[in-house]
Amino acid sequence: ALLESTSGGFSQAAKNFVVTSGQGFLVQPSYQRDLLSIRSFDPETMEKTSPQIYVSNLDKERIRQFILEKTPALSGQQLPRLVLGMKLMVLHEGTLIMDAELQSDAQTNLSRDCYLVAYEAKNGGRLLSLSYLPNTGRLGTPSELLQYAHDEAGDLYLLAQGGDLLGFYQNSLIYRIRHGSHEVDPDWQVKISDLGLSYPARFNGIYVYQGKLLTMVSAHQLSAIRSEIPQDEWQYYIIDLATRHAEPIASLRPSSAFRQGVNIATVIDGRLYLRYVRTSSEAPYNGYYTYDVATGLATPAFSVALQSGYVADFKKITLTPQPR
């Protein structure tokens, strides 16, 4: 509420944000159609800061025309709303990478394609580039489950959940924006179809560590009704960034993915931990495994009683004694 536009007061409208060390950016639907801005703030004090990024009418029209050019089926539709950053927002080397949508007055998105906007993250802002991902359904939704990760070289890996208007996910995709660039790398992607599965599936979650990308893949065809999706439906996969070869982590049986907190993995004291929660009565587990990317060995780290709730995240906190 502290960061919202003072012209319209506090609203329950959807918002999205990204926070890095010492800087955060917040985007929300504009109160006026001709005004689209991205607010920067201090994540410690929650105070508004400079820069504030304004998306000019000229840039809005460039984005609109790019979408209509790439997806001609949208031409002639009544799509007055241009929405940025509500499904994807990530800071990459001083550039905000955001999704773009043309919506009807009812806030409906009619496109199965995805569009990325790269905008300079400094005072005023500037449109840098536009990218297009055909037939990838959606880039995610604002949540704590990250849809992107940087590797040690500074390359940015992102996840498109795929799907169509009915919610199926056969076009899920992992793609890349290189260090020093703000456009999608045309030479690197992993499609869900590359896994050779006999059913429509999708990727869920993403983490990059030591030349490997970790994600989860549905173990069976998903129902469009979430309540009908069975327990322990998600299989860990590891993808080699150099070869793009993907294979399941065979030592880990399928596990739960919903109710995840921050991400599927974390590194503490140089060890990689994978969140692993099985909620069915067969081999239940509620905690973390360690995983050695060199040997492929997964080892139980800890598990807590399921009655305590689902493990969502794992952090190490170092306390510094204060003099009395």
Structure description:
- The chain has 324 residues and is mainly β.
- Helix content is 4%, strand content 40%.
- It is built from 1 helix and 20 strands.
- It is globular and about 55 Å long.
- The model has no long low-confidence stretch (mean pLDDT 84).
Low-confidence stretches: none
Order of strands, main sheet, comes to 1-2-3-4
| Structural class designation | mainly beta
Q: Percent of residues in beta strands?
A: 35-45%
Assembly state: single chain
* Helix-residue proportion: under 10%
Amino- and carboxy-terminal Cα gap: 37 Å
Give the tally of β-strands: 20
What is the count of DSSP helices, taking H or I runs of 4+ residues?
1
* Main sheet attributes: strand count, strand direction, barrel closure: 4 strands, antiparallel
Looking at the structure, what is the overall shape? globular
Our Rg estimate from Cα atoms comes to: 21 Å
Write the layout of secondary structure elements.
Blueprint: E1 16-20, E2 23-27, E3 37-41, E4 48-54, H1 57-70, E5 81-92, E6 95-103, E7 114-120, E8 127-133, E9 148-150, E10 156-160, E11 173-177, E12 184-191, E13 203-209, E14 212-218, E15 234-240, E16 246-248, E17 265-268, E18 271-278, E19 285-292, E20 297-303
What characteristics describe this protein?
four-stranded antiparallel sheet; mainly beta; single chain; 1 helix
